[in-house]
Batch of 3 targets.
Target 1
Amino acid sequence: MRVGVDSTKFPGSEEHGALWMLERAAELGLEGVYFRSVLELSPTLDEGEVRAAAQCAADLGLTLEAGVGKVNPFSTPEAPAIRRLGGDYRAGIVRMIESSAAAGIHELWSALSNYQFRLAEKGRFAFDRFRTDVDWPDQLVATERFLHSLAPVLRAHGTHLNIETHEEITTYELVRLVEEVGPDVLGITFDSANVVVRGEDPVAAARRVSPYLRASHIRDVALMFTPEGLSRFLLPVGDGVLDWPALLAALGPHQDVMLSIEGIISNRAEMGIHLYDEQWREGHPDLSLDEVVELVRLAREYEQKAARGDALSLDELRAPAAEGAALDFIVRSAVRLREELAALGSTETEAVVKEEQ
């Protein structure tokens, strides 16, 4: 499995552009870049610019993945740049799919909605899942309808739209969405840190999405108890509570999926898991008590480490990220991922040898 990086959290990517990003990734020994939007390759979808980025990646021996916009129609007003591409939002997304395919990019990121960090003090209402102007089931219905409208375009170009296990959607809902619209045009981008926000055990979540896994966002998490239930914070791979041998084993059958490290910007992106909120619980009809218990166990494990001084405290997790922390997050995660992959490979080799004997 290749170890790459997501462009959105890489320091300097936005200022310096796609070619710089690709060259910087290669300098760091990374094996690919997951651009969250094809507009990072060319803001106007200029064919020459998109092809130039694809050629640069090929010359450097890097995997190149890109993305389009959100596919929940209730979230699309937040992306006017996409609408401007085609006159309406769907036309803009179609242009992005076509432009990517022309450059040989057929695995495209997407997600449904957002987390409104400026509304964090509003609890569950910071998640678009809990908007009061439109119910979540209605958002899912509208999203499915929109994806069905894109399906013929995706089929015509041999492209997959790989929807992320983003902070607003459960893996259960996402699997149902893929199966309804069709796995020939939809896949899943598994984010190891987001699934806990929906009350899911990351290893169990990885196994659920495994049949449709086509891309990934990789990072570790700290879980801490709060008056609302739990809070999730982002950490480099190996610094948190995720079971990486089990997680990578769950992803292991997909050797062609790049492990794209998604880091941090200015903070560790605290998000609440509102276990004590009855409406939060009712808003998760697939919630598994066993998986919630596992998250509580992981939080207790992390807090014990923090009490011993072996992990960041709650105050330290909530503090602004230190200068250089964003790049350090990526570099350290890559080192640890390769160590875990090497160990996993050795274990699998030993198992094969024993079986042959």
Note: The chain has one domain: 3-356.
Target 2
Amino acid sequence: MTDGWNARSAPPPAAGQGPSPWWSDALADPWRDPYAPAHVVVPTARESTGPAPEAVVDPDAPRRSLAPVLLICLVTALLAGGLGGTLGFVFAVRGGLANGTGSQLGSAGQDAPAAANRAPESNAGIVKKVLPSVVTVRVTGAIGSGFIVSDDGYVITNDHVVEGADDKTMSVSFSDGSTAAAKLVGRDPESDIAVIKVAKSNVTPVALGDSDAIAVGDPVFAFGSPLALVNTVTSGIVSALDRTIQAGDPGGTTRYYAAIQTDAAVNQGNSGGPLVNAAGQVVGVNSVIRSVSGTETEAGNIGLAFAIPINQAKRIAGDIIDHGKARRTVIGAEVATGTNTGGGARLRSVDPAGPAGAAGLKAGDVVTKLDNHPLEDGTDLIALVRKYAPGAVVPVEYRRGTKTQSASVTLAADSN
């Protein structure tokens, strides 16, 4: 076989002989004529006119079994079906379908709703515990809040909630929708605390906490009826402690607070409702809000709300229940308010027989700290003094001229 580079023609037949039978019909066949040029021609698609040859299958070759493929398909289908059924059941239960009437889903009420199974220490658990003790106070169309503090139906609320109320115009409603008549037991305008009593048996009192034990950053809940939306609960933290506030309507009683500040949403109607800690205990009475609005009717929550510490409110409420009026704690001195003293409360006059006089303070002294709390002006001193019970002994730091001195003052109750 050659590629044609040395091609030569076939030899002529010998004399007396005809054409060779081997070459007569294949003169150009390279496989028979070793002297013919060789080349391979591949036919194009156009040159191919016949059908494509069928593939040759070896009849003796082993055939592949379909059993593994069928087994894999069967297992996959079973797994997909099981997973789909499980997910469908889970979603149905979460969607509330598990309490249907079908026997396969269980009888109604067999499984309590998830909301009823919250842990007691959870937010929902705290709300469930406190809400039955919170009441909505209605006075001639106005709405405030309050909370039950005893088994016999005593309720603490704000004085400004019951202002102008009488036994015929006041009622309360409970979280379950029931209502009851209420009567005024007593009020203390200067502390903004009042006590009413509801005409209902089997009431649930709240648990009272210790407002001296709370700290800035503690979580709290505000309960009440803001803007007439009864049974409302909001949450936040303690933003500040002993925030001194001077409040009251022009021409009316001036109220002083050494308040708990919180960023829980509080609006009109929350007044008198409880501020509750994470243990479900009342630590304050919601009383005052700050607003950018210039009028009280347009005031709204901006994250600045203030509550009377429960230790103070409990003491005043006890005085009202036991004696018909509250004792006001005093230091026995008259202070200047709204003046720039360079920090501190200037004493304009001092009762020599009063607590401040007995401790050695004199008119003109500037009290700079009360119980280690810095004072800016006279409002701070009044508000902080009223936080304490009569008979409490508090350290005082004051400035006389250029000299700083200290003393211990035993606070007293006002004689009025």
Note: Helices lie at 67-94, 123-130, 159-162, 310-323, 355-358, 378-387.
Target 3
Amino acid sequence: MSIIIRKIIMKKILLICMAVMAITSCKETSREIEVVEDETIVNDKVDVTSITPFTAAIEMAHKKDLFLEKDAIQYDFSVAFGGNTIFEGVVTQETDGSMIHMTKENGSVIVFDGNQVYATDAEDLKNPMTRFHIFTWPYFFSMPYKLNDKGTIWEEEEMMTWGDASFPTARLSFENGVGDTSEDWYEVYKNPDNNVLAGVAYIVSYGKGVEEAEKEPHAAKYNELTTIDGVPFATNWSFHNWTSQDGYTDQIGLATIKNIKFVNKEKSFYAQPDGAGVVSMPGE
């Protein structure tokens, strides 16, 4: 999609958000979801996509148009749970999420070329967490720009507890076959003061199934916004236990993001590295 088309789309969304704000001020008690139609041109054909005011407001607050104008984004990433670092390295990803490159602290590489996942390290090839790492953390990073991806399903907006306040939320789920774990869901929280993504509650069914995952839902709280080339990013994600009644509770993990910068990479950067093998899907 060209930059001009994206700008036209985002201008439409801005007008939609302004209209929604005006309607909401007159009718605050309504929880019925409102859907708007956004026409985008893909391969010279018009594709009508339903975009809710809830997700449109988040996309505008996170400057989706500016983000997608760039080729790729790179950042230093570290995440720990229970005091143990489970991933540390440099992440580079196309802004549309189509390709991802990770260089771990030990120098080993994990790559998603848009079709397959490759790893240079023998342990990473056998580790079921390898695919989890390359898809989960880049998705959390770029979530404000992935809310209306193909295959996303949104439930009606409601107010739910987030800390000491109630924030607007909506549940995101996926059509069958989307990603490695299409049965996962996210409860997305929007900051009512500035429309930025405040955090998400989620389940991780990877390797254990939905029933087990729903016994231990968690939340990621997005903190410490910084602006890079006009685009805001959270540089600290705290992970918590979560319930639908209490929102996020005890902290169980922390991710830090540093040295964020937009970059340009050749497609070969995401190709299968020399000596790398294919990382199989779960259960294969």
Note: Residues 71-284 form a domain with the outer membrane lipoprotein receptor (LolB), chain A fold (CATH 2.50.20.10).
